[in-house]
Every structure is written in C-alpha cells, then in structure tokens.
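Re: [help] complex structure
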Amino acid sequence: MGKTVVAEHLSAFFGEHQILHDVSLEMQANQVTAIIGPSGCGKSTFIRCMNRLHETVARATMTGRVLLDDENVYEANSVWVRRTIGMVFQKPNPFPAMSIFDNVAAGLRLNGIRKKSVLAEQVERSLHMSALWDEVKDRLSAPSASLSGGQQQRLCIARALAIEPAVLLMDEPASALDPISTLRIEELIEEIKCQYTIVIVTHNLQQAARVADTTAFFLSGEIIEYGRTTDMFTTPSDKRTEDYVTGRFG
Amino acid sequence: MKSIWSAWSKNQLDRLFSSILLTFCLVIILIVGTIVYELVSRSALAILHFGFHFLTGQVWDPVHQVFGALPFIYGTVVSSVIGVILASIVGIATAILLTQYGSWRWLDLISILVELLAAIPSVVYGLWGIFILAPWLRQSVEPILNRGLGFLPLFQGQGYGVGMLAAGIILAVMILPTITAVVRDVMQAVPNELKDGALALGATKQEMVSLAILPQAKRGILGAIMLALGRALGETMAVTMVIGNRPQIAASLFAPGYSMASVIANEFTEATSKLYESSLYEIGLVLFLLTVVFYSLARLLVWRIRLQMRVNA
Amino acid sequence: MSHRLLLWRRLKNQVFFTLLVFMSLIALFPLFNILWYVISRGLPELSIRFFTRLPGPVGMVGGMANAIVGTLIVVSLACLIAIPIGVGAGIYMAEYADDRFAAVCRFLADVLSGVPSIVAGLMVYATVVIWMHSYSAFAGALSLALLMLPTLMRTTEQMLLMVDTSLREGAFALGATRFQTTVQVVLPTAASGLITAVMLSIGRVMGETAPLLFTAFGNSFWQDGLNAPIAALPLQIFVYATSPYPQWQAQAWTGALTLLAIILVINIAARAFGRGKLR
Ligand SMILES: Nc1ncnc2c1ncn2[C@@H]1O[C@H](COP(=O)(O)OP(=O)(O)O)[C@@H](O)[C@H]1O
Ligand SMILES: [Mg+2]
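Output below.
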C-alpha cells in the first residue's frame, strides 16, 4: 500500500545556489501526482529530496521536512528511506555489467533475499508489472545492455518495483523513449497506481493530463499552483500556469 | 604586386613551419627505431652465443663468460608483482575514498599528498630504503612474518632487510600515485546515473561501490595495474639500492635478489668483454620488450574505456 | 526488511569506510616518513660549504657544488633539446597531421614513454658516448631529453586539442594561414597549460639517476666543457648513499634534501602557475 508523502518548507541548495524556495506539497497515497514546469525549475531536485538522493551530491544541502505517513524521512535511516521510496530516472540506468534477471533481483539481494525460488518469483512478478515479461522471459540471463531504450526503462521500473516500495518517484521516465514505449509506461502507471503513491515529473503536458490525479506547477523553484489535474488544465487560477499549459511560455 | 608577394611569402612560411614540425615528429620515429636497432644489433652476439638458453640460464658468471638472465628476470618480475599487489590494495582503496566520499573535507589534502609521492626522485627512495626501510624490515617486520607465517617458504630464513621484500615495498610506494590517479579517473568516469540507481534501491555506500562502481571500473582498474606494472619493471635506482644485488633465485622474499635494470646499472661500465657487454644489452632488450607489452596492454584497456564512454554518451 | 539485517548492512558500510580511511593513511605514511628523515638527516650537514665546495676525500669536509651546478647544466641542456622538439611535434600532431599519422606518432610516443630510463641511458651510450669516445654532459642531457620528449608531445597535443575549434575557424576566416593561426591564436590560448606541463616534466627528470650512469657518468671536480663527464646531484647521492663512510652517507641525505627542495619548488610553481592562469 502506498504512503502519503508530505514535503514541508523544503529549500534546496547546490553550494550557495538556492534551487528550491520553501516548497510544501502533499502527495496523496495511491494517487498519481504530476510535477510540471520548465526545465531547470527544480523538479528533479525536488523529488530527489523525497528519497534523500539530493544529499549524496557534493555540496548539495537542504532544509525543511519530508514526512512519509507522519515519519520524518530526514530523521530515519537513509537506506530504509530509499528502500521504501523507489525511483525511476530520466535516462534508463540498468547496471550494465548485470543480466536482466540480476538487475531486477539486485534490490532483493541487498535486502537479504537469497533463496532462488523467492527471487525468481519476485523477478517474474515485477517484470509482469512493468509489462516486460513477455519480451524477456526467454533471455533473463542476457546482459541488460542488449535491451532497447524503452525496454531498459521498463527494466528499471521492474527493478524499483521488485522490492515493493510504498512510493514510486519517476523523473521524466518517458522523455527519452519512443511513443509506443511511452504509451506502455503510461498504461503501467494506470495499472499499478492503486498500490503505490506515484510522483511523476514530466515535460509532456498531455502525459500529465492523462495519468495524474493532481498536478503541481513549478516555476523557478517555487510551486505556482497545485490542484486537481483537470482543474489545472481547464481553469488555471494563476496567469503563469495558464501561459504554461497553453504553451505561451518559455 | 606587394600583396601577391606577401601572400606568397605567407604560404612559404606556412610550409616551412610545417616541415620543421614534421621533422620533429620524425625524430620520434627515429629515436624509437634507433633504440630497437641498437638494442638488437648490440645484443646479437649474446643472442647468437646463448640462444634461448640466455633466458633460462641461472648462472651469471663474468669470470667464466657464462651469462644466464633468469635470476634477473625472476627478481624483476617478483619484486614488481609484490609492489603491484601492495600498491593495488592501498591505491584502489584510496581511489574509492577520493571519488565516492565527495563531501569529506580531508579528501583534497589526501589527493595532493598522494600526488606528491610521485615527485620524489627514485634515488631518494633508494636512500630511504637503505637506511630506514631495510633496517626496519630486518628488525621488526621480517622476524614477525617469520614467526607468524614461517611455514610458508616465502617467509623462511634469515631476513637481511635488503632483499626482494624491500624492493617490492619500495616499488609499491613508488607506483602508488600512478595506480591511485588512474583508478580515480576511471571511477570518476562511471556515470552518476548508475550510482543514483544503486542508491535509489536502498544500497549503502559500500553496496553502491560493489554494485555500480567496481563492475564498471573493472577494466580500467586492470589497465591501471598494467601501467603500474610497466613502471615497476623498469624502475632502476631504488631497486638497485635495496634488492641486495645477488643473482640468485630463492623462494624466500627475505633473500637478496637482483633485477634486470639493476644489473645493467651496476655492471655495464665494468663489462670487460664483448660477450659480457652484449649480454647486458640483451637484458636491456628483454626489459624493453616487457615494459612495452605492459604499457600497450594498459593503453588498450584504458583506451577502450574512453571509447566505450564516448559511445555510451 | 528486518531490523537486524539493516544494522548488519550499516555495520558493513561503516567497516568499509574505516578500512578505506585506514588504507589512505597507509598510503600517506611513507610520504611523511620520507620527508621527515630527509629533513632531519639532511639538515645537520646543510651549510654554505655544502653549496660551495667540491666533494672532499673521506675525512675532509666537502660539498656538492659541482653536482648541483652539473644537474642544472644537464637539465637545462635537456630542456633546450626536448622542449622545441616535443612541443613542436605536439603542435604538428594536433594542428597539421592527418589522423593516421597522428595515431602513429601517438603510439610511438607511448612506446617511448614506456622505455625504462636505464634503457634510454643504454641507447645514448650505444650511439653518442661510443661515437664521441667519452661520457659527456651532452650525452647525459640527451638521455634526459629522451625521457622528456614523449610526455611533452602528448601533453602539448592534448592542450592544443582542448582549444576550441571555433577560435581557429575565426582566425582562418580572417585570412590567417595555419602558421599564423597556430602561433597567434592557438598557442597563446594553451600557453599556461603548456608551461605547467613543461615545468612538471622538468621536475620529473631533475631527479633521474639511472640514465646518467653511463652518459654523464659523474665527476668529482668542476666539469670540463660539455664534452666531458659531468657530475649530477642524483648521481652524487647514489654514490654517497652506497658508500661505506658515515660522513658521505650523511652528505647523501643533505643532497637528497637539496634535490627534493628544488623539485618541490618546481612542482609547486608549476601548479600555482597553472591555477593562477586558469582563473
Ligand atoms: N549537481 C548540480 N550542481 C549544481 N547545480 C545543479 C546540479 N544539478 C542541478 N543543478 C541546477 O539546479 C537547477 C534545477 O535543476 P533540476 O532540478 O535538475 O531541474 P529540472 O529537473 O526541473 O529540469 C538548475 O538550474 C540546475 O542548473
Ligand atoms: Mg530534471
């Protein structure tokens, strides 16, 4: 089951440079929240603060709180946090030296699951969920680099889902993919959203409109508007949101 | 008229300049050619005289004009391998620390200090080896090793301080900066996305290193080791000063040995006969070939990495 | 995920980090140890005498004046030979050569950079020393130049390739020839990097001993022109270090201190220069 993620008064920095300015946002459990905004506005930085990846970058700091069902992420153990909040990145990043199977099993192994049968079962389940099973079931031991870009991205989704996170962060998961792969991933989000809290960053406004229940519009490190997706796209309350969703912007 | 003249002279100047530079490039070809030619032609006498037995002969006896290079090859290879093993362990660990713990503030200092090791001349290492390292080995390290691991032939017998172990350790210190620097570059080249991928799965830093960094850097690390091995094989002064300079093959690392570079350094100016001199040239030739092989392997491995990165990017 | 497992993984992580720090300390230990001994054992014999006198026989106080001067002469001579050729060849590889020829030069430079310094000495002996019938400052310089060449070529090439192509095109568009473009646009842009690289390579050959053994050979007196054997600081350190006399051994440490000081100054200057220009 998903958990609600609440960001409270987040400010994020790279050295002296402030990227996020006091951002607060609630991402409901078992819903899809889309984050839109022009590039460089801090969308990636924002979601990397959710699973504490931001702090792994040299000279990167942040202030504020992130709550995961009332538990403060920044007071919990970072390994536990990242294990509970899965993430899929803009560029597919399977471990190139590993086979397809080992990629999906990587997170399970980290968590101490060694039994072959359990691993195999979990890997198959995750690959089914990411709609990749039929394409790879005959070559699970092939290197992950032998997959196409779209397949690699679905492999990364399977890898993230295998450890059954409560939250799934997706940073422009389809931006590097062809339309068919993109469609696959959107269908996938539709199918799994009842079990997870999904936060998706996207450049593609139609995509946000198609998959998201709520949408947040970021601009220069601040949230300009936040609300039900249909409202955002039909009756935006802020002039800047309207400019952006109608394409009159940037 | 004047502008035609100046255009003409400009072109002439250009051509002159480029042919001078071309000559400089040709100098490189000439030098490499000369090295190979001189080494081969001057060792011809020994090659013809001893044939392949030169490489397998264990006797080095200038008085009776018997020259076998095996003790030197053995000494060079064994001391270099010891050096490379020690330096790899320490160097790879240091490189991981330097690249993966980016927010730790002592790192810049460590990195500068390790680079400083490379600036120390070989003869100073040798001096330190004779007067500090060797006595320390003799008094402290070798007795302990002998007591603890004396059942292994490697650590048997009386330790003199100077010997194979001392040469290996000094080589390790000397090639440490090379290994550290190359491995660091290789690890820095691992894309951040892979690290993020591992961390996002809930990997600890150590797990991230073994999941994302090491498999990617494997080949480059091997290249770094080859490069270091190439350097260690040819290192002369420091080894000459601590290896003990005795042409023998002993199982114990405590025993004195001799290396190819050292025997050239020590005996070349005293080589009294043509055959003696020619044998030393042949040792030089073998040494040259050996180092070229390892350097080429290293370049190939590290170069492949670069190429791979370019393709992936 | 069980709590115990998480604890275990964090412990493993902590141990790993501790091990890395420990290894780095091991890496640094020899540096401090060497510096400490070179300074503490080198200082007692350090005096004006050391820099002004010739080596004396055992029992007499001597210095390394001729060796210091000798090193400066041999290294300067080596620079005179290696810098024009190395930098020139690097320029040709970056600016003129077609890919195939550049690749050949690059390969040969790599081969040459792998040549052990003692073998470089052998080669110079086999050609120059035999031909001149004498060890000489010139032969010593040549062997050092051999060691400088490949690095100079490669770094020059790399520095020039880093210069933005648009700069060159801008100059060509103004009607400049390749020569003018190279000299007036490309070289000045790469100059600070080049100077740093040259200085670093000088620092590197300054301490080379092996190639000098049978080229410069060494000399206990003031050198007698460039065609005669010449003393060099690293050679003198080697001879004294391996001698049985405590007094000479002590002087070897002082020589090492002097040599190290010179090399460190060159290194630091090179780095400071590179950094200053980059900003
Ligand atoms: N590693 C980094 N170091 C310094 N600045 C960075 C780094 N990553 C991103 N930035 C800066 O942070 C800002 C926001 O980046 P990001 O969150 O990636 O934007 P988005 O994902 O919305 O395109 C940008 O101005 C970018 O230049
Ligand atoms: Mg982004």
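Strands of chain B lie at 60-61, 66-67.
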